[in-house]
Design brief:
Blueprint lengths: L14 H25 L4 H34 L3 H19 L13 H24 L4 H22 L8 H20 L1
Helix pairs in contact: 1-2, 1-4, 1-5, 1-6, 2-4, 2-5, 3-4, 3-6
Length: about 190
């Protein structure tokens, strides 16, 4: 749905694109929650819901900030929108892939309010940046935020509960997969 002959982006993220974006953005939530699931053995139900709620909330609301920020500059950046969307998704994808090669850090128990908020913000910076892509592709913000937030909530729950059962899961492989999804979305923006 990309119109040729103009630099303006006339492509909307489809429902499948939004779901793929949600999965790519939610991988950080899954990995962080997985590491917490490995550590916690008490109050797992309460702790998993608390973590998932914070992750889902921040992942679902941060795109609004990116969307609004882009909206104020919209008329200046719209002529370059397809390249901006390409750049955002490409950079995020490459970031995920490069981070997957970094050495793993030791997990720290982190479910107090201050720590949860910090984790929520840290894992959702990518979602904030994706808000610009949502705006530039004329995609429904509410739908995108709901899918991203729900996807991150579900991935966080899944990560937390699988932490103890799947100790051999390759979190670095998940980060690479998220990077590949974002790079594929970047390429789709310019073809």
């Amino acid at each position: 749905m990309l119109s040729r002959g103009t630099d303006c982006l006339r492509w909307k993220l489809s429902l499948i694109d939004i779901i793929l974006l949600s999965i790519a953005l939610g991988i950080d939530c899954l990995v962080v929650s997985f590491s917490q699931g490995l550590i916690f053995s008490e109050n797992r139900g309460k702790n998993s819901l608390k973590m998932a709620a914070v992750m889902g909330f921040f992942q679902g609301t941060m795109p609004v900030i990116g969307y609004v920020g882009t909206d104020t500059l919209y008329r200046y950046i719209m002529p370059f929108s397809k390249w901006i969307v390409f750049g955002i998704f490409l950079i995020l994808g490459l970031k995920f892939i490069f981070e997957s090669f970094a050495p793993e850090k030791a997990a720290v128990k982190c479910l107090d309010f201050k720590c949860l908020i910090s984790l929520g913000i840290a894992t959702s910076i990518d979602a904030l940046v994706s808000g610009a892509s949502i705006r530039l592709t004329h995609t429904n913000l509410l739908l995108a935020c709901l899918i991203i937030g729900l996807g991150s909530f579900l991935m966080s729950i899944t990560g937390f509960w699988s932490g103890n059962k799947l100790k051999s899961i390759c979190s670095k492989c998940l980060e690479k997969a998220g990077g590949i999804i974002l790079i594929a979305l970047a390429i789709k923006a310019i073809i």
